[in-house]
Amino acid sequence: MTKVSKFPFRLAQGYRDFLVGRMPTERERYRELATRRQSPNVMVIGCCDSRVSPEVIFDAHPGELFVVRNIANLVPPFTSDGTCHGVFAALEFAVQVLGVHHIVVLGHARCGGIRAYAEHGPPLSPADSIHKWMSLIAPAAELAGAPGGEDYLTRLEQASIGMSLENLLSFPYVAAAAEQGALQLHGAYFDVATGQLSVRDLDGYREIGTQPENECGCDALGERPS
Ligand SMILES: [Zn+2]
Description:
Elements: H1 9-20, H2 22-34, E1 42-47, H3 54-57, E2 65-70, H4 86-98, E3 102-108, H5 112-119, H6 129-134, H7 138-143, H8 152-168, H9 172-179, E4 184-190, E5 197-201, E6 204-207
Parallel strand pairs: 1-2, 1-3, 3-4
Antiparallel strand pairs: 4-5, 5-6
């Protein structure tokens, strides 16, 4: 670093708001979390998109979500060739160390990465990392149906979630935990314009309404008993 940078005012102001707003209500939780290791029950694999924050969407408290974010919320397929990858490391830690019970691949509408892939447009150029990264969704593009039509991007975004769920099962420790019933995989899709969240099931995507539901019979969001 060659010179002192001025910390963004918006962030400093936001932190001050946090100190007088949320921090007092979370103080005990932070204090208690500091005395032991984290034990989140849920891992979320989300997009870097600034509009799609898992902690905001799920109204999560500190210690509840283990989150990894990347362009277009992708999970590459497992390889054993020694590739060093942030998603792989986070996944290993979540499943093998933390023992999360749920992994949610959280996709969203109007995803810039998906759109760039579909339209072969900026910021994709063959020399860039983002081009190589987005080429991972080629198998999803085959499942999304013919390009074109108003719903094509939605189909591609949702097919990409399905592809990442399939790729999760290519990791031996994920497949083993899922087979034993210790781990459940979920797909979810957030509509940025409306705030509507839909979850993936056998028939497609089902909107979550405002009425409480507890379909898996457990308190999925929250911490595991330590
Ligand atoms: Zn996105």
